[in-house]
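Hi R.,

Here's the chain you asked about this morning:
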Amino acid sequence: MCPEEQIVRDESVVSGRHFEALEDGRVRCDVCPRHCLLSEGQRGLCFVRGRLDDEIVLTTYGRSSGFCIDPIEKKPLNHFLPGTPILSFGTAGCNLSCRFCQNWDISKSREFDTLQEQASPEMIARAASETGCRSVAYTYNDPVIFLEYAVDTALACREEGLKSVAVTAGYVCPEPRADFFAVMDAVNVDLKAFTDDFYKNVCAAELAPVLDTLVYLKNETDVWLEITTLLVPDENDSREELEAMAAWVVEHLGPDVPWHFSAFHPDFKMTNKVGTSFDTLQRAQRIAREAGVHHVYTGNVHDPVGQSTYCSGCGDMLIGRSGYVLSTWKLDPKGHCLGCGRHCPGVFEAEPGDWGARRVPVSPAHYAA
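And here is the predicted structure, written out as tokens:
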């Protein structure tokens, strides 16, 4: 946990529900498996949930590190409303401490100057609707730590007919997990590795809660699920680990859950590492396919072949991609292959979007009522 800091109750702070007062006078935060034990004025490791007047409050409600319209494939989601624009935003802080974090300036920030934008949930939903977005993404830092803000925004999005997408590491306790995903329509979970040592030594976390979240999403919700693994050379890319992970995915999540293998680039506290080779990405893709995963993708590289979607029946290309730009589209309005009729798992509309690779900054304040 973090040392004592001044926490002010104002309109940007809401009371959290997932906490418990202990007999020793401390309050335990129960949003994530860290269960930070806080005295008055302290914040947890995430730095955005803190104790105030015997409660755990979210200190970043209504404030963001920025808003941007992205292609939904950037989340990454390849089987959820392909080609459509999505309004993305995050806050600050994180409940993991990944040494390779590529958003560390946001996720590890303890400077509230990072939070440059103020926007209510209704403003965000209105901005997304009026800019033609089909959905809103809670991303950049892990949204489970700004659960209240994300849930309120998702509810406002539903009023506007918009979908909600979570990009998360899945490191969350069962009760808040149920509250969070009850209002989400799609999620990409970052399955960072398949060993306890990696999670402990590289992320300062544990593997088991992430696996529990994945099984929960698959078996107990209707949320569309895709997973991502960032391959870090000599850390989580061995054949043995990838084979074990792939076998677990097929057994517990099924063969139709799309899996993205992304290339690592040196950053934050892992600048001494080399980037992931294209051969390593292709090897991981082959291992997953040989284990039975039908839809496996490469990421953070230019690879039109490895990033396109193919029919698991006849092998035809169903959705062609070059970066975030769609080309081929061979699905009928109900998501069936035009060649053999096999259904492609996902959430598809009759026609794909044409947003392309554009990235457009947005200020929700311009859309205030």
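One quick note: Residues 64-303+340-360 form a domain with the TIM Barrel fold (CATH 3.20.20.70).

Cheers,
M.
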